[in-house]
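Team,

Forwarding the record for the chain on the shared tracking sheet. I've put the sequence and predicted structure together so nobody has to dig through attachments.
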Amino acid sequence: MKFKASLRLDTLPYLLGATAALARMAKMGAGSRSTASALGAPICYLKLTPNQFFLNVRHCDEMEAYIEAETVALFHPGWVIESKRRNNIGLVVDVLHLHNTLKLASHCSRITMKLAKRQGQGVLSFDFTDALMDNLWITQDCPVQTLQGEDVDTAGTPDIPACEWNVEAPRLRLALSVLDRMTRLKADVVTVDVTPTAAAEGHCELAFAGASDLVNVKTAFPKCALLVADTNTKQPTAPHVARSFKTRRLAAALRVAMDMSHGRTNDGLVACVIPEDEQAYPWACVVFHSSKLESLKLFCVLPTLRRPRDDMI
């Protein structure tokens, strides 16, 4: 098994955003033994193929986050990815350690990555050339576990079926302020309602509603865009769609997307993707698609809840 590559410096900010997003998710699952690896950290999978780069965390408060990008967009020509399993490499890494290593490299003029062993422990080794002193090299190792067999195949992004409802998210800071207010008011469950706008084709009203013992809260975001990926995308048959989530989970998913976009709305598109058949697909997905690094995508999947009674909203 071999891996060696020189990282494109212009992609470093995007990898920093991606690892920050996954580190946030990993902290949510840090208290669960089921998410802990032998490295002493929540499980984060890194999968490398000749064409794709995958990074993801799973089972964090029943949420999962998947990041993917094309290998050619991240590495300079000449990278080496070799293994007996169709040149696919699967690793378990400490994503916070990986994020801090990339931060250390943020002021370097050259970054080389490779798989190596240090005293019998597998590591993802980074060599940095200082931007001011070309003869100064810095080496930083991230401990890894090597996946074998079918675990390598499942370490990437799973197939996420096409969904009927694809809605552009409102400004993330504004949406998060609403969810944070609901949390302070003890509204632990939020219902997201999407209703197409008759007067504006291709747009909808996106509403957040929650209730506690003492207060009802509802905020609407008018004129959110209804997105159509292509002409073959499934079209919704219902007049509107509503799903309920734990408030903290939806807020966490939006914060992960904000980490990916560095808090700037012009860095990419954030959308809420909702299957129409909740019984078959009891989940929704927050998607981030970078506008600067086109192959970079985030899929943050969170489970839905049985909706509270209508009279509670």
